[in-house]
Amino acid sequence: MIELSPSLIAAIRGEGEKSYPDECCGFLLGSERAVKELVPVINAREDGERYHRFRIEPDEFMRTELAARKKKLDIVGFYHSHPDHPAAPSEYDREHALPCYSYIIVAVEKGRACKMTSWLLAESRSEFTEEKIV
């Protein structure tokens, strides 16, 4: 399971709505599976691809990791939105994910955030399993 406060859940939902019709993305900072802070980032995908893909640049990852360490936090995962698609990981998501992180997905239908889920990738990288958000 992954722990998120109501305010962090609302913030992820808000990021999804603000970015619609494109995907939003960002980092989940915390310790273990308790998220303490979000770090929204700009979706680095090229124009015309942001509606169904997101990318976080490596230098953004490094900056966020260094900033997290200064706060005695870790990157525990990532969040992104699925505009007009279910809150379930795509094959693309699986191919680009790593087993040690949580992946929160918020479905945004016609500009309104709805279902939110969280996923863990198997060590074999073959499939995701849903984890409970508490």
Summed over residues and divided by their number, the pLDDT gives a mean of 97
| SSE sequence, one letter per element | HEEHEHEEE
Number of H/I helices? 3
In percent terms, what proportion of residues is strand? Answer: 35-45%
Feature tags:
six-stranded mixed β-sheet; 134 residues; single chain; alpha+beta; 24% helix
Question: What does this protein structure show overall?
Answer:
The protein has 134 residues and is an alpha+beta fold. Helices cover 24% and strands 35% of the residues. It has 3 helices and 6 strands, in the order αββαβαβββ. The chain has a 6-stranded mixed sheet with strand order 2-1-3-4-5-6. It is globular, with a radius of gyration of 14 Å. The mean pLDDT is 97.
Which secondary structure elements does this structure contain, and how are they paired or packed?
Blueprint: H1 6-19, E1 25-31, E2 34-41, H2 58-70, E3 74-83, H3 91-95, E4 102-109, E5 112-121, E6 128-131
Parallel strand pairs: 3-4
Antiparallel strand pairs: 1-2, 1-3, 4-5, 5-6
Task: Briefly say what this structure is.
24% of the residues lie in helices and 35% in strands. With 134 residues, it is of the alpha+beta class. Strands 2-1-3-4-5-6 form a six-stranded mixed β-sheet.
